[in-house]
């Protein structure tokens, strides 16, 4: 059996990757979308978590999926991509997909444009996310930076098929991140895909169908 492990982002939850998981299920893949330690509740719970606990959550999920599947693709969204690098280094999965994974954070022009757009369109949900991001515990933010540092150092050692996906209008992760990941991983089986109309939340962008089709094609070819 073929499986896909989908890892959500920092302060997020499985809802960020479940739309893609649903598409993969329809294609016959077994999927697993774990909730990382400290996530899935209120933000202040993150003060009791750490990057090691996030990695342990992802590691345990990989082991659980490996009991059902002999071939696994790891798909990481945002910080989940950093965890995917760690798992790829440790377990050598069949292939990997990196979505909106940070190396260089915050594009201030895209951030301003996205914020103004959400004010004009009265997108209260997105505005709430911006507001509550101010209340993320500093200890958790520090652990995020430590994870980024450790994961970035692994890239030259990841020799597996990899697809790097990035929204050109991402206000959270600068586009240089995707280029750095693509250029640093030494695999000769890799692709870099930019989506001009998409922001950070690729799973809810107007181009999500194109993104999902490309990811599924990549996994079928390499996974």
UniProtKB/TrEMBL annotation:
Annotated InterPro entries: AB_hydrolase_1, AB_hydrolase_fold, Esterase_lipase, Hydrolase_4, MAG_DAG_Lipase
Site (Important for substrate specificity): 119
Domain Serine aminopeptidase S33 intervals: 152-204
Highest taxon in the source lineage: Bacteria
Domain AB hydrolase-1: 5-125
Coiled coil: none
Positions annotated as active site in the UniProt record: 78 (nucleophile), 170 (charge relay system), 200 (charge relay system)
GO molecular function: carboxylic ester hydrolase activity
Protein name: Esterase/lipase
């Amino acid at each position: 059996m073929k499986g896909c492990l989908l890892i959500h982002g920092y302060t997020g939850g499985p809802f960020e990757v479940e739309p893609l998981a649903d598409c993969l299920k329809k294609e016959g893949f077994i999927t697993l979308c774990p909730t990382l330690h400290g996530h899935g509740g209120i933000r202040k719970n993150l003060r009791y978590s750490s990057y090691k606990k996030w990695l342990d959550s992802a590691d345990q999920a990989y082991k659980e999926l490996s009991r059902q599947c002999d071939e696994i693709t790891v798909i990481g969204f945002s910080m989940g991509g950093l965890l995917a690098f760690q798992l790829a280094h440790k377990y050598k999965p069949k292939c990997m997909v990196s979505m909106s994974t940070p190396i260089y954070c915050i594009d201030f022009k895209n951030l301003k444009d996205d914020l103004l757009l959400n004010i004009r369109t009265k997108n209260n949900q997105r505005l709430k996310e911006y507001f509550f991001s101010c209340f993320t515990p500093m200890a958790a933010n520090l652990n995020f930076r430590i994870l980024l540092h450790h994961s970035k150092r692994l890239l030259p050692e990841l020799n597996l098929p990899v697809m790097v996906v990035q929204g050109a209008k991402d206000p959270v992760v600068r586009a240089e991140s995707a280029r750095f990941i693509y250029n640093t991983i030494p695999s000769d089986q890799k692709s870099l895909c930019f989506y001009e109309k998409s922001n950070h939340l690729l799973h809810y962008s107007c181009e999500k169908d194109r993104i999902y089709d490309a990811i599924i094609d990549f996994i079928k070819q390499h996974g």
